[in-house]
Amino acid sequence: MTFNIISVGIGIVIFIYSILYFWRTYNISRMQSSYKWWLILVIFIFFFMAGYISFEYFLITGSEILDLKILVSQVFLWGSIFVLICARLFFITTKGKNTLLENDRQAEEKIRMSEEKYRSLVESTDDSIYMVDRDCRYLFINSRHLTRLGIEDYLGKNYRDIHPEEQAKTFTDSVSRVFEKGESQQYEYENDGKWFHQTLSPVKDPRTGMVTAVTAVNVVSSDITARKKAEKIILENERLASASRAKSEFLANMSHELRTPLNSIIGFSDLLKQTTCNEEKHARYVDNVLTSGRHLLDIINDILDLSKVEAGKIDLIIENMNVAKTINETAGLVREIASKRKVILKSEFEPGLEFIEADHMRFKQILFNLLSNAVKFSKPEGGVVTVAVKKEGDMAKFSVSDTGIGIREEDMDKLFQTFEQLDSGITKNYGGTGLGLAISKKLVELQGGSISVESRYGEGSTFTFYLPIKRIK
User: Fold this and answer.
1) Following CA atoms 62, 67, 70, 73 in sequence, which dihedral angle do they give, to the nearest 10 degrees?
2) Domain boundaries, the chain
3) At residue 83, does pLDDT exceed 70?
4) What b-and-e string marks burial along 275-311, b requiring 16 or more CB atoms within 10 Å of the CB?
5) For 113, left (φ over 0), alpha (ψ -120 to 50), or beta?
6) Residues facing 79 on adjacent strands
7) Same fold, 232-311 and 318-468
8) Distance CA 198, CA 171 (A)
9) Interval 11-67: pLDDT, tens
10) Is the pLDDT of residue 184 over 50?
11) Range in 75-89, 105-119, 139-153 with the lowest mean pLDDT
């Protein structure tokens, strides 16, 4: 009897604890209706099973009331334990579910905040940022690029539909290379007077952070117009500084070139005036005066010719010029100095090219400058200078080749530049103003031609210029 009372008491305590546990843990008054029905169902099952088992036991055994009380007390005890276990399991399940829901909610919030952060970064930059697929269809465009394109929406639009054909081709080729190689591409381009630097990068796999299969291309386009202008200003300043240095060197050299023949003229003139000399000395002094005067005249002519060319005041007299005759005449002007330097002059003519339409005097000036340089810069032991003429299409090709000292590769860019000389030491050793090639280049171009040079240092040089056979009216 005492055991039955204890069992019933324990059962009641456990049952009440279970109900309070439910109430405290889940706040049954605020519990969702589905959860309330589950709780009612558990309690109902408990009492139903207690009554059913007791009734069946009574029918089958015909037990006395005492035995029935014992059975009911045991059933009540274990049923209460069952209710407690159900409540605990319900708590664990619900808590786990709530934990998962909370974790999902927090993850979604983190993703939302991350997206918002990066979207803010993309939208606040001055650069154009957008994404395209393999066919250059826009997948995303930031507001900066929308403004630059002058459109409000990018859906359904293609890069080719908005940009010029040449620019679109460059872009599509770069996109294709990104898809094929999986590597970033960079290039610069000009559009409507502005310069842009464009970087195309493959979209990485978000799971691995690696470029596996390229699905799209990110594009960052930066306006570098200000940088280009700054670079242009820097280059222009460097060019002006270089020109200023070249002019200073030219003037220093020119002063020497002018003083030398003038001193010679004045000195020998004084000798002729002050002394009584024999006929041989008299002739030598006069010859020195004439040589210095001619040299001075050549320098002045170079300066005047350059000034006329720079001012565009040279008038060409185009005539039907005999090629072989003009070349032989010009070669004759340098033959004496060539002989003194042990230089052999050769000429090679193509039989089919007899006449061209050109300015006879300016042609001789061009060829004379090239032949003079070839002879002047010959080696001490002498050499060979060859003038060759060929017909190439509608152009006549004239080349002057020598076996002289040649030109260093780093000095090639200085050729044909006004006031530029390869080396101040060359001027001192060989003389000259350094204007001959610059004048020749301008005279060739005035007649519709071009001039170039090939050289190997220590082996010789070949200067080549082209002139049209027939002048275009």
Assistant:
1) 40
2) 2-116, 126-223, 232-311, 318-468
3) no
4) eeeeeeeeeebeebbeebeebbebbeebeebbeebee
5) alpha
6) none
7) no
8) 9
9) 555 556 555 555 555 454 444 455 555 555 565 565 555 555 554 555 555 545 445
10) yes
11) 75-89
Residue closest to 19 by CA, chosen among 5, 4, 33, 40: 40
Q: What is the DSSP track for 326-394?
A: HHHHHHHHHHHHHHHTTEEEEEE--TT--EEEEEHHHHHHHHHHHHHHHHHT-BTTBEEEEEEEEEETT
Report, as an integer, the average pLDDT of 223-250: 80
Sign of CA dihedral 33, 37, 43, 44: positive
Q: Which residue has the tokens 């929308």?
A: 146
Structure tokens at 282: 């008299």
Q: What is the pLDDT of residue 320?
A: 93
Architecture of domain 232-311: Orthogonal Bundle (1.10)
Which two tokens mark 338?
A: 């060539």
Residues forming beta bridges with residue 456, ordered by sequence position: 460
Q: Long-range contacts of range 144-151, CB-CB < 8 Å, 24 or more positions apart?
A: 145/221
Give domain 126-223's CATH architecture: 2-Layer Sandwich (3.30)
Task: Give just the sign of the alpha carbon dihedral 294, 249, 415, 427.
Answer: positive
What single string gives the DSSP state of each residue in 131-194? EE-TT-BEEEE-HHHHHHHT-S--TT-BHHHHS-HHHHHHHHHHHHHHHHH---EEEEEEETTE
Q: Which of 126-135, 266-275, 409-418, 457-466 has the highest mean pLDDT?
A: 457-466
| pTM more than 0.70 | no
In degrees, to the nearest 5, what angle opens at C-alpha 144 toward C-alphas 142 and 149?
95
357/320 Cα distance (integer angstroms)? 5
The tokens of 429 are what?
């050793």
Q: What would the pLDDT profile of 300-323 be if each residue is shown by its tens digit?
A: 777 777 777 777 777 888 999 999
Contact 221, 238 (CB under 8 A): no
pLDDT tops 80 at residue 176: yes
The superfamily CATH assigns to domain 318-468 is Histidine kinase-like ATPase, C-terminal domain (3.30.565.10)
Three-state secondary structure along 247-265? HHHHHHHHHHHHHHHHHHH
Q: At what angle are helices 279-311 and 436-446 packed, to 10 degrees?
A: 50
